[in-house]
User: Fold this.
Amino acid sequence: MQIDSEHLSRQLKQGLAPLYAVHGEETLLALEAADRIREEARRQGFGERELMIVERGFDWGRLLAGAASLSLFASRRLIELQVANAAAANDGEQALQAYANAPPPDTLLLVRLPSLEPRSRKAGWFTALDNAGVTVHAQAVPASRLPAWLAGRLSAQGQQAGEDVLALLAARVEGNLLAAHQEVRKLALLFPPGPLSMEQVGGAVLDVSRYDVSTLREALLAGEAARAVRVLDGLQAEGEGLPLVVWAVAEEARGMLAVAELTARGVPAARAFEELRIWRDRQAKLQRALRRLDLATLRAALLACAHIDRIAKGVAQGDAWDELRALALRLTGAAARRPAAEAR
Assistant:
């Protein structure tokens, strides 16, 4: 059974499964999910814990031997596998399938995995774990949901904040959920339960936001102009290389253009997505983006990327970062084509 990490507490109340596999993009949520599983296991009498670190070359016989052996110190025990990467899990496919097909009694298996590509979640070992127990996906919190996520964390410690305060807090911690958790906890130490003011949060919360090119691509696809420009500002301040940023913008424009050209020729959207091998979680976002962008805009965007690349290489005149901001505004539908200086 596959669930999101936010639904784990509800599932645990229904009873412990024989095994759990925790994976996902968000480290904080994955750590918290594993902690909740361990806490519930201790509460239910799993008094012994055996930890195995799984890297390439790991002896998977240890898992089956450990499962078959009797517990020395407690009647119930937890076996925890910390798997370094999907390749290491692939090496143990037979052992994981064998364990999942016949979980031993009075033993709970917790498999901690990194973020997995969609193809890894279709592997035989992952399917076996999912069929035998619960796979918990610790998904990254998108920017659109971050204020609500922060509100929930504040509420848990007896504090509340208005929409403007939450927006400020979200802008300062976006892309860095571990730091966001620390900043929220700091607010509990600094201020009593109750509503928080803009002055309190503004003065107490550091700007710990982190941005990467994937965040920029997400903002462009979602049509979030202010966020896209803010991410570009952050990337420039952090010294991110222009070639990578230009590549990310070009890839997003190229992907949208490929879909737009197929559908313009009468190809159904579902078939276009299949031909271009676009994952389902991106399809709805692409369709929304293409409702605001036409073929001419997307083709012009690719030409703009080529021009910005020439600026970055010193063979054309202009400010590459300003041109990127102007292009971001066009791709998000916030502005028609206009000079970069005006777009700032």
User: Anything to note?
Assistant: The two ends are 48 Å apart (CA to CA). The longest strand covers residues 46-54. Residues 242-264 form the longest helix (23 residues).
